[in-house]
Specification:
Layout: H1 3-21, H2 25-41, H3 46-72, E1 89-94, E2 102-105, E3 108-114, E4 126-133, E5 136-141
Parallel strand pairs: 3-5
Antiparallel strand pairs: 1-2, 1-4, 2-3, 4-5
Helix pairs in contact: 1-2, 2-3
Amino acid sequence: MDPWLIWLITALLFGAAEIFTLTAALGLLGGAALITAGFAALGLPLPWQFLVFAVVSTVAVVFVRPVALRRLTPPQEERFGVDALVGGAAYVTSEVTGLGGRVRIGGEEWTACAYDETLVIPPGTTVDVIEIKGTTALVYPRE
């Protein structure tokens, strides 16, 4: 079997695998195999074919893939209200346990409960806001 045909079949297999994974990496490898098939059809020796495949696939994965992923992934939505507080820091003003306590989040005093009900978080500790249920912040101490 001719080497260019093997590279062409390889390119088709990478393309088919890309359809199932949607990672943009296998498709680029398929493109590199397609380019290598072209060089193989021109009579390039086998060791040089592997070099062409390695160079083209490396350039594609390192430089083209990040640009493609940035264009394909939608930008993160802005969070507003209490959703914007989740993931932020809070300062414990009165002891926080699984039953209750108080924290200061962005200048406002909130009721809080420890995310892990067995924890007792002393005043003065910086905690992360894990979730907000109603008017109560579920917090976990920073490490």
